[in-house]
Amino acid sequence: MKKYILKTLGVAAVLMMVSCEDATEIVQESELNEETAFQTVADLQSGLNGAYAAYGPDFGGNGTGDAIYTNAILSDNIKAGAASNGQGAQDYSYFVDIAGSSPSNDIWANRYATINRVNRVLRAMGNLTFTVQSDITEVNHIKGQLLALRALAHFDLFEYYTIDYQDADALSIINVDFVPLTSDAFERNTVAQTVAFINGDLDEANSLLDPSNATVANPIFINRDFVKAMKVKLAIDAGDFGTDILALTNELMNDYPLANQIQYLTMFLDADNTEAIFKLARVNGDSSVGLLFYFNQVMPSDGFLEMSNQLFNELSELPGDIRATVNLAPTSTVVGVDDPANELLINKYPGGAGGLLVNDIKLIRSSEIQLLKAEIQARNGMLTDAAQTVQDLRNARTGAVSPATAYASLNVALTDILDERRKEFCFEGKRFLDLKRIGADIGVGVSRNPVDCSSFNAPCDLPVNDFRFTLGIPQAELDGNNTITQNTGY
């Protein structure tokens, strides 16, 4: 990871680390090192804030980007927009690219940059001693958030760069709980090691987080409920659908009920937190997530990426579904079903108090826990319960009793849950990973509407067993780390 370690030194939130190859051990008078930067509880909080700020699934724009962009462009929720100049065409066409500005590069670089920031603060924290109990409690709470954030970054890497989440001996990612030297080179850890590593960070975080801390009620900060949600998500990836995991989903749903239609609408305008277990705060001057789809704002002839006709058709299935209102701008033009002239403007990130196209990123919502609960029930043969769990979500989104769906088999249940996840989380950075995980179990890959893929003159399908459902280790990592093994197919 040599190259990324060097890169992250230049962007650390609170450190200006000076390295001089021909002047070893010389400390410049103006140098701000960790010992100087971190001396108080407030300093550690600043370091934590910098780690939060480093994490960017919404980063990117104009045809490149992190997780939100990747899951949109590589799946079936996008078509070329009226303002398209070819933004995203290469990714949409599945041309293999592991160089700079590719999804492979951007996600890997961002998560290890976030991990590096976390580990630098943790290293500095280990050199400090606090004697006042209130300071000790606060420092532990900060450490708990750092560990949970490190777990989140490793979890993302695990999902994107691991071929098979349940093959214990297969290669996964590089697990990093220290600040490496620039001369270090590492092979990837195994799946079993990575799952244990992430769980270890989550368990320690849970023991340190203070449930009475003032930040706990604010979803922009990590708390024990975040840890619960992450334990659920990791367990399901690893194939653990036990009753203890189901119990965690019930606990979370008791504390975070599903939003009604008004709450759902205002949630995406950053005015309601009913479902928010954890979200990334975005204010004026931060990353503008809407720039992943637009040049300037949500308006006709400004979107270079639009909602696919296929997704629009699905969102139109249930009368009164508030998700259609949230995701499709009222200024869209619908000429007809699957008409190439349809201009389907994405409205999930119109902007709020932070400015045009700037919105908080709802990373974990209770609706995700609801659908994970349904999946656990289905995989345990509780098909009637699973159908009701999905039905409850649909009722909340339509404000009425929606048509009931009976699950005759696990395959039927997983197919319906996958479809519901598509409508619920479109443009939130989940679709491509959902197809990789759930699709693999039911034989469903990417299958785009012909009118959508023709907007890019691109392939319509990506078979479920295609190697490109797992991202490649980026070229910059390969250049700086001759020990690491590349994923199959790259």
Give a written overview of the molecule.
The structure is a single chain. The chain is mainly alpha-helical. The two termini are 18 Å apart. 45% of the residues lie in helices and 5% in strands. The protein has 19 helices and eight strands. The radius of gyration is 22 Å and the shape is globular. The strands form four sheets. It has a two-stranded antiparallel ribbon. Strands 2-6 form a two-stranded antiparallel sheet. The protein has a two-stranded antiparallel ribbon with strand order 4-5. It has a single domain, classed as Serine Threonine Protein Phosphatase 5, Tetratricopeptide repeat, CATH 1.25.40.
Which SSEs are present, and which pair or pack?
Layout: H1 2-9, H2 34-37, H3 41-54, H4 67-73, E1 78-80, H5 89-92, H6 103-125, H7 133-161, H8 191-208, H9 224-237, H10 243-255, H11 261-267, E2 276-280, E3 305-307, H12 309-315, H13 322-327, E4 351-352, E5 355-356, E6 361-365, H14 366-379, H15 383-398, H16 410-425, H17 431-442, E7 446-447, H18 450-453, E8 461-462, H19 475-480
Antiparallel strand pairs: 1-3, 2-6, 4-5, 7-8
